[in-house]
Structure formats: structure tokens, C-alpha cells
Amino acid sequence: MFAKPAWKKAERTKKEGHIVPDPTLEMDAPVTRQFLENLFTTLRDDIAALKQELAADVKDIRRNMGELEQRIDSLEWGSDNTDEELEDHKQEILALRDKTADLDYQLEDLENHLRRLGDPGLGQTSHPPGGIPIPASTGEVHLPGTEKKDQETTARERSRERAAILQQLQQRYSTSDLDND
């Protein structure tokens, strides 16, 4: 068959980071020598270019990692604040529920006081039309033909109505009148 080219026959050794052909190999043609020199020069240039690209990529990766760390830190800081805000909102809700319960109790007390005085209360007549009884409290009353509302919406409306009635009752009757009973 064909003989292997001279550059394939070379025993490769590593010397100072370069692969060099065995010095015992005889180079017959100056063309082969020139070819190998050009090949090594091209390889060195390619390796140098790859090193530069790799260094630029590593630099970009480091910059991106720094940005990512900053984003993570800001998200962690934001989640800590969100947890604190959530806890504050929960405390506010509990305080408002307690206040609503106190206002409900005061309103019920004032309604009972008005009943003892014989006053039917605000928004109620002493003789209701059609024989509909006056409810004992301002709780939810469903008359025929009315639509049933969402419980949460009804609870909000009831709280607003009770607060308005309580304010009107406090304006109508001073606390000194209530203490006399």
C-alpha cells in the first residue's frame, strides 16, 4: 500500500508545551518543513485566539454572576420586608376585628336601651307596614324578592351600617342620658 506521510510517522513528544516531531525524523522536502511550520503557526494563532475568547467569556460570566448575586440579595431583602408587612397586616386585621366586635356590642347595647325606652330605633317605624316584625338585631333579614348576597359583602355592609347607626345614636342620645337609666 501507500507509505504514511512523514508528519504522521513522527513520534510526538511534549516539550515546553509544544508538540514537536522526533528530531531523528529526516525531513526530505523543504515543502514539508514549510507546511509544518505554517501548521504550527496557525495552531498557535488559533490557540491564542481561543484563549482570548475564553478569557472574555469568563469575564462575562463573572460579571453576570455578580449581577445575579445582587438580584438574589435584593429579592431576599424584599421577601423579608414582605413577611414583616404581612405580619403587620395580620395584626391590623386582628385589631379591626376586635374593634368591630366592640362596636357590635355597643350597638346591641344601645338598641336594647332604645327598646327599653320604647323607641324603635333609627330607620324603623313603630308600626311596620304589612305586619312584618321588627328584627331583634340589625342582623341579616331576607325579605321576599330580595337576593341573597355574598356573606363577606353582607358582613362588610352590616359593619358599615352598624357603625353609621352607632354614630347616629351617639349623636341623638348623649352618654349622660344613658347613664341615668
UniProtKB/TrEMBL annotation:
- Report whether Coiled coil shows up as a keyword of the record: yes
Where is the sequence biased in composition, kind Basic and acidic residues? 8-19, 145-161
Taking the record's annotation, the residue ranges forming a coiled coil are: 33-99
The answer to whether UniProt assigns keyword Coiled coil to this entry is: yes
- Keyword annotations: Coiled coil
Q: Which domain of life is it from?
A: Eukaryota
- Region feature (Disordered): 1-24, 116-161
What this protein is called in its record is Uncharacterized protein
* Species assigned in the record: Pleurodeles waltl (Iberian ribbed newt)
